[in-house]
TrEMBL record:
Signal peptide: none annotated. InterPro entries: DUF1501, TAT_signal. It comes from Roseateles agri. Pfam families: DUF1501. This is DUF1501 domain-containing protein. It comes from the Bacteria.
């Protein structure tokens, strides 16, 4: 069967996937929904805006040196298991007491996040990770309940965190949240915006992520400037890639995608050019900070882009520290802390801090036990939730017992999660406005968990 004889539904799916893949070799946001820019949907009131920002830490962040046991007994247990990796207690930044009287602290490099925690703008989700259903240690050991596929594998656990499915998943829960708000955005192409390349988290069943660079919208090569020094050549190229009078349906649809891409790039560039410079300082040498600066700018021009609900994705890599953890991890945590704090300050400057929530995520946590110079792949981890609407200055979930082969440990300090990603995601989705009846379409396993609102918001 020739491709232009495929059944209509298969053709539509092919086109959706093709638009998501983009064209290799062109530094351009090709990944656009085929139905994304032509409609002028009924946007909600200008003040009814919310944005969710996923900050993904690729490689598996070491939870134990990020949010550190601080009370004397817990710290001693932590230090004895971590050997040369343990951060000296006197350098740690203490946080509030846990309900059971224990105490946690932040790494020394995270002073700005400590300030946000103390100000009630940031909270800590304890021991969260990928689960299919609530799982006890006995059930895990007996393999009597379904578990996420290929635990401790980077690719699969990145995918499961972002999509609730193994590697190869066609959509993620960030994109599926975006699907619910396509009709409330004036131009749906700007519903899910990725400043970090491409991630399954941002792909929806309808929405396709729009990609920008930290410097702004990325033009299609040689459309906005002369090709080989010739404007005439550039005009011919533009005509070839935007003509709609093609005889083959694939050519026609491809050219429609390109036309929309050119239009979106022009609209973003124009909107950003009219945005006054932000007074908030972002460290230009910090890649995560420059990504979040662009998110802040995109939020700043939300009205010009017709956006009422948006999901953003940024990332920081380098966390797979099987060796050199003591040397490399502090700099990563410093970049994370500085970037998040600057971003929150920018949302305050823009007057939208109560309408923007950022959260961290990662492949998995790591082992509490040291391998000598680093830590190995784990499971559960601790993460941050930040924003003006966040009821911060507190912890959510259960703090793990700091002991080798304890009740929360599946081996070497790999935490068995006591909170699922589905619960975290359901809490954020509900804040965005996703009705409870639609949560199963966003999070296929959420019905396995009784508690679906973790209380991040007042």
């Amino acid at each position: 069967m020739r491709i232009n004889q495929l059944p209509r539904l298969q053709r539509r799916e092919f086109l959706r996937r093709a638009s998501a893949l983009g064209l290799a070799g062109s530094a351009a946001p090709w990944a656009l929904s085929l139905a994304s820019m032509g409609e002028a949907a009924a946007a909600t009131a200008p003040g009814d805006y919310k944005a969710l920002v996923c900050v993904f830490l690729y490689g598996g962040n070491d939870y134990a040196n990020t949010v550190v046991p601080y009370d004397a007994a817990s710290y001693q247990a932590y230090a004895s298991l971590r050997a040369s990796l343990a951060t000296p207690r006197e350098q740690l930044l203490p946080l509030a007491l846990l309900p059971d009287g224990r105490q946690m602290a932040l790494a020394p490099q995270m002073g700005r996040l400590q300030s946000l925690f103390n100000a009630g703008q940031l909270g800590v989700q304890l021991n969260v990770g990928t689960l299919v259903q609530p799982t006890t240690l006995a059930q895990y050991k007996a393999q009597s309940v379904p578990l996420p596929p290929k635990l401790f594998s980077h690719n699969d656990q990145q995918s499961y965190w972002q999509s609730s499915a193994a590697e190869g998943a066609p959509s993620g829960w960030g994109g599926r949240i975006g699907d619910r708000f396509l009709s409330s955005n004036g131009q749906s192409v700007f519903t899910c915006v990725n400043v970090s390349g491409n991630a399954v988290f941002m792909a929806g069943q309808q929405v396709v992520q729009y990609q920008v660079a930290p410097s702004g919208a990325v033009p299609i090569n040689f459309v906005g400037k002369p090709l080989y020094g010739s404007q005439a050549c550039s005009d011919v190229l533009r005509g070839l890639i935007t003509a709609t009078d093609r005889t083959h349906w694939m050519e026609r649809e491809l050219n429609r995608v390109v036309t929309r891409s050119i239009g979106a790039q022009g609209q973003v560039a124009s909107a950003l050019s009219g945005l006054p410079a932000l007074g908030t300082a972002f460290d230009a040498s910090n890649g995560l900070a420059t990504q979040l600066q662009m998110v802040a700018k995109m939020i700043g021009v939300r009205a010009a882009l017709g956006a009422s609900r948006q999901v953003f994705f940024v990332s920081l890599g380098g966390f797979d520290l099987h060796s050199g953890l003591a040397a490399a991890h502090p700099a990563l945590l410093s970049n994370l802390s500085e970037a998040l704090a600057s971003f929150h300050a920018a949302t305050v400057e823009l007057g939208v801090s109560n309408q923007v929530t950022a959260f961290t995520a990662s492949d998995f946590g790591r082992t509490l036990s040291s391998n000598g110079d680093g830590s190995d792949h784990g499971w559960g981890s601790h993460h941050f939730v930040l924003g003006g609407a966040v009821k911060g200055g507190r912890y959510w979930g259960q703090a793990p017992v700091v002991v080798s082969n304890g009740p929360d440990d599946v081996g070497q300090g790999r935490l068995l999660p006591t909170t699922s990603v589905d619960q975290l995601a359901a809490t954020l989705a509900a804040w965005m406005g996703v009705p409870a009846s639609e949560l199963p379409a966003v999070l296929p396993h959420v019905g396995n968990f009784t508690l679906q609102n973790l209380g991040y918001f007042g």
